[in-house]
């Protein structure tokens, strides 16, 4: 959607990981036009909502329940107001937006969502890594440690995901770092598996650390990382040069926009690849 937003609408805005220039243009525009801005000061930088229009109502949701927020949605419906509901990262990931959409449906106010840069993506960029490398890791598992305050589905256990040996991004698990390390090791990751710890990624006081998996817990305890932390783990995160290059930009790889060089294509086929 482009241009002006209508009234009588709730827009779930992904604020990104923290830095005010990592919100999308669309998200910033929704905030600038909103009559009511609901945001969590514990998670979202105040700079994200600083561009509000004069007279906009700013509501800090850090201590609010869903029942506290619902009357604001009802007011927006009745008075034809635009609500920007600002969530850290991407609202589709651990954003508790599904239940808010249910409220909007129940009270009869339309809604839409604007994606945001998630913390795992920001951490990978800050560490200058690619989380999917050819023949090393071609998948990303995004999850959290089970056993916390929010129950996990019975088949979603960290050690079971770890058996895949691919890249994992772990949220909401920093406070239980010893259990997290043990579960990752129990799932089959070798002790020397590279780990990237991102604390308050993209904020002014960002801390980005590398360690081995068997050093994960001690590293986090040394730095007192209990929250605002995302953990990346997997063989693709190693600092060493890549072992296998992507075929996409290989001179022997043919696709719709480029013909393959015969000698390079022959070399790829000899290695068992489809050029």
Short description:
The chain is 27% helix and 19% strand. The protein has 275 residues and is α/β, with parallel strands linked by helices. The mean pLDDT is 91.
Describe this structure in words.
The protein has 275 residues and is an alpha/beta fold. 27% of the residues lie in helices and 19% in strands. It has 8 helices and 10 strands. The strands form 2 sheets. It has a 5-stranded parallel beta sheet, with helices on both faces. It has a 5-stranded mixed beta sheet with strand order 6-7-10-8-9, sandwiched between helices. Helix 5 links the parallel strand 6 and strand 7. The mean pLDDT is 91.
What is the topological layout?
Layout: E1 9-14, H1 25-33, E2 36-39, E3 57-60, H2 66-79, E4 82-87, H3 98-107, E5 111-114, H4 119-126, E6 140-144, H5 158-162, E7 167-171, H6 177-186, E8 194-199, E9 207-212, H7 216-223, E10 229-233, H8 262-270
Parallel strand pairs: 1-4, 1-5, 2-3, 2-4, 6-7
Antiparallel strand pairs: 7-10, 8-9, 8-10
Helix pairs in contact: 2-3, 6-7
Observed structural traits:
single chain, about 280 residues, alpha/beta, 5-stranded parallel sheet, 5-stranded mixed sheet, 10 strands
